[in-house]
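Before relying on records like the one below, remember that each one covers exactly one chain. Contacts with other chains, cofactors or solvent are not represented anywhere in the record.
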Amino acid sequence: MYKKIVISSLMILSSFVITAQEITVADCLSGRTNSLDPFSAAFDYPIYIDIEKAKNGGYILDLPDTKHLSVMALPKAYDEPRLVLEHSSGGWWKALVKFKQSDPTYWEEIVCVTEGKTTSANYLTSDLATDYIVTISYAKDFGKHTNMYSIRNLENFGQDHDWYFIWIKGS
Protein backbone atom coordinates (compact mmCIF):
# COMPACT_ATOMS: atom_id res chain seq x y z
CA MET A 1 0.00 0.00 0.00
CA TYR A 2 2.78 2.42 0.95
CA LYS A 3 4.51 1.75 -2.38
CA LYS A 4 1.30 2.58 -4.31
CA ILE A 5 0.91 5.88 -2.45
CA VAL A 6 4.51 6.89 -3.15
CA ILE A 7 4.25 5.96 -6.83
CA SER A 8 0.94 7.81 -7.16
CA SER A 9 2.40 10.90 -5.48
CA LEU A 10 5.44 10.83 -7.76
CA MET A 11 3.22 10.56 -10.84
CA ILE A 12 1.19 13.59 -9.76
CA LEU A 13 4.34 15.56 -8.97
CA SER A 14 6.01 14.64 -12.28
CA SER A 15 2.94 15.71 -14.27
CA PHE A 16 3.00 19.03 -12.40
CA VAL A 17 6.67 19.57 -13.28
CA ILE A 18 6.09 18.66 -16.95
CA THR A 19 3.14 21.06 -17.15
CA ALA A 20 5.12 23.85 -15.50
CA GLN A 21 7.97 23.46 -17.99
CA GLU A 22 5.62 23.89 -20.95
CA ILE A 23 4.83 27.47 -19.93
CA THR A 24 7.57 30.07 -20.24
CA VAL A 25 7.98 33.07 -17.98
CA ALA A 26 7.48 35.35 -21.00
CA ASP A 27 4.15 33.65 -21.74
CA CYS A 28 2.97 34.19 -18.17
CA LEU A 29 4.01 37.82 -18.07
CA SER A 30 2.41 38.61 -21.40
CA GLY A 31 -0.86 36.83 -20.70
CA ARG A 32 -0.47 34.47 -23.68
CA THR A 33 -1.18 31.40 -21.60
CA ASN A 34 -4.23 30.06 -19.89
CA SER A 35 -2.48 28.43 -16.95
CA LEU A 36 -4.79 30.14 -14.48
CA ASP A 37 -7.84 28.48 -16.06
CA PRO A 38 -10.28 31.39 -16.45
CA PHE A 39 -13.19 28.97 -16.35
CA SER A 40 -12.50 27.99 -12.75
CA ALA A 41 -14.90 28.53 -9.89
CA ALA A 42 -13.96 32.22 -9.57
CA PHE A 43 -16.48 33.22 -12.19
CA ASP A 44 -19.10 31.11 -10.44
CA TYR A 45 -18.43 32.83 -7.12
CA PRO A 46 -18.86 36.59 -7.49
CA ILE A 47 -18.30 38.82 -4.47
CA TYR A 48 -19.28 42.41 -3.82
CA ILE A 49 -17.05 44.64 -1.70
CA ASP A 50 -18.95 46.63 0.93
CA ILE A 51 -17.83 50.11 -0.10
CA GLU A 52 -18.98 51.89 3.08
CA LYS A 53 -17.36 49.36 5.44
CA ALA A 54 -14.12 49.54 3.46
CA LYS A 55 -14.10 53.35 3.65
CA ASN A 56 -14.97 53.36 7.37
CA GLY A 57 -11.98 51.46 8.73
CA GLY A 58 -12.14 48.31 6.62
CA TYR A 59 -13.48 44.84 7.32
CA ILE A 60 -12.64 41.16 6.94
CA LEU A 61 -14.24 39.48 3.94
CA ASP A 62 -16.46 36.55 4.84
CA LEU A 63 -15.32 34.05 2.21
CA PRO A 64 -16.10 30.31 2.30
CA ASP A 65 -12.49 29.15 2.41
CA THR A 66 -10.71 31.96 4.29
CA LYS A 67 -11.36 34.58 6.92
CA HIS A 68 -7.90 36.08 6.46
CA LEU A 69 -8.49 38.77 3.84
CA SER A 70 -9.42 42.31 4.82
CA VAL A 71 -10.40 45.22 2.60
CA MET A 72 -9.81 48.86 3.43
CA ALA A 73 -10.17 52.07 1.40
CA LEU A 74 -8.03 55.08 2.25
CA PRO A 75 -7.99 58.49 0.57
CA LYS A 76 -5.72 58.13 -2.45
CA ALA A 77 -2.06 58.95 -1.92
CA TYR A 78 -1.35 59.90 -5.55
CA ASP A 79 -3.20 61.51 -8.43
CA GLU A 80 -4.68 58.18 -9.54
CA PRO A 81 -6.33 55.62 -7.23
CA ARG A 82 -4.50 52.34 -6.69
CA LEU A 83 -5.17 48.72 -5.87
CA VAL A 84 -2.76 47.52 -3.18
CA LEU A 85 -2.21 43.90 -2.13
CA GLU A 86 -0.28 43.07 1.06
CA HIS A 87 0.63 39.94 3.01
CA SER A 88 3.23 38.70 5.49
CA SER A 89 6.75 37.89 4.32
CA GLY A 90 6.28 34.13 4.57
CA GLY A 91 3.06 33.88 2.59
CA TRP A 92 2.43 32.05 -0.68
CA TRP A 93 1.57 33.70 -4.02
CA LYS A 94 -1.56 35.85 -4.04
CA ALA A 95 -2.81 38.21 -6.73
CA LEU A 96 -5.58 40.26 -8.22
CA VAL A 97 -5.86 38.99 -11.79
CA LYS A 98 -7.80 40.55 -14.65
CA PHE A 99 -9.45 38.62 -17.50
CA LYS A 100 -10.76 40.31 -20.62
CA GLN A 101 -14.55 39.99 -20.74
CA SER A 102 -14.38 39.68 -24.54
CA ASP A 103 -11.63 37.02 -24.41
CA PRO A 104 -11.29 35.30 -21.00
CA THR A 105 -8.28 33.30 -22.23
CA TYR A 106 -6.29 36.56 -21.93
CA TRP A 107 -5.28 37.30 -18.35
CA GLU A 108 -2.79 39.50 -16.55
CA GLU A 109 -1.80 39.99 -12.93
CA ILE A 110 -2.73 43.47 -11.75
CA VAL A 111 -0.87 43.07 -8.46
CA CYS A 112 0.77 40.03 -6.86
CA VAL A 113 2.70 39.17 -3.72
CA THR A 114 4.75 36.13 -2.85
CA GLU A 115 7.38 35.05 -0.37
CA GLY A 116 9.75 37.99 -0.01
CA LYS A 117 7.46 40.47 -1.82
CA THR A 118 4.95 41.70 0.73
CA THR A 119 3.35 44.65 -1.08
CA SER A 120 2.27 45.24 -4.66
CA ALA A 121 0.38 48.24 -6.06
CA ASN A 122 -1.01 49.25 -9.42
CA TYR A 123 -3.37 51.91 -10.67
CA LEU A 124 -7.13 51.35 -10.49
CA THR A 125 -8.04 52.23 -14.06
CA SER A 126 -11.61 52.77 -15.20
CA ASP A 127 -11.36 49.99 -17.82
CA LEU A 128 -11.00 47.37 -15.07
CA ALA A 129 -14.71 47.70 -14.29
CA THR A 130 -15.90 47.86 -17.89
CA ASP A 131 -13.59 45.58 -19.87
CA TYR A 132 -12.34 42.99 -17.36
CA ILE A 133 -13.35 40.50 -14.72
CA VAL A 134 -11.04 40.90 -11.72
CA THR A 135 -10.43 37.90 -9.50
CA ILE A 136 -8.89 37.33 -6.11
CA SER A 137 -6.44 34.53 -6.82
CA TYR A 138 -3.99 32.58 -4.67
CA ALA A 139 -1.88 29.47 -4.47
CA LYS A 140 -3.74 26.40 -3.28
CA ASP A 141 -2.77 22.71 -3.19
CA PHE A 142 0.76 22.05 -4.47
CA GLY A 143 1.12 25.79 -5.17
CA LYS A 144 -1.38 25.82 -8.04
CA HIS A 145 -2.41 29.41 -8.82
CA THR A 146 -6.19 29.40 -8.52
CA ASN A 147 -8.79 32.07 -9.24
CA MET A 148 -11.12 32.03 -6.28
CA TYR A 149 -13.52 35.00 -6.35
CA SER A 150 -14.53 37.58 -8.94
CA ILE A 151 -15.02 41.14 -7.69
CA ARG A 152 -18.23 42.33 -9.35
CA ASN A 153 -18.58 45.93 -8.17
CA LEU A 154 -15.33 47.65 -9.17
CA GLU A 155 -17.38 50.38 -10.84
CA ASN A 156 -18.42 51.50 -7.33
CA PHE A 157 -14.86 51.89 -6.06
CA GLY A 158 -14.67 55.46 -7.39
CA GLN A 159 -11.59 57.55 -8.05
CA ASP A 160 -10.99 59.09 -4.63
CA HIS A 161 -9.58 56.13 -2.64
CA ASP A 162 -6.78 53.57 -2.75
CA TRP A 163 -8.10 50.05 -2.16
CA TYR A 164 -6.10 47.76 0.12
CA PHE A 165 -6.55 43.99 0.10
CA ILE A 166 -4.60 42.74 3.13
CA TRP A 167 -3.98 39.08 3.97
CA ILE A 168 -3.75 38.75 7.73
CA LYS A 169 -2.54 36.12 10.23
CA GLY A 170 0.41 34.95 8.15
CA SER A 171 -1.77 33.40 5.47
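Confidence is low (pLDDT under 50) at residues 1-35.
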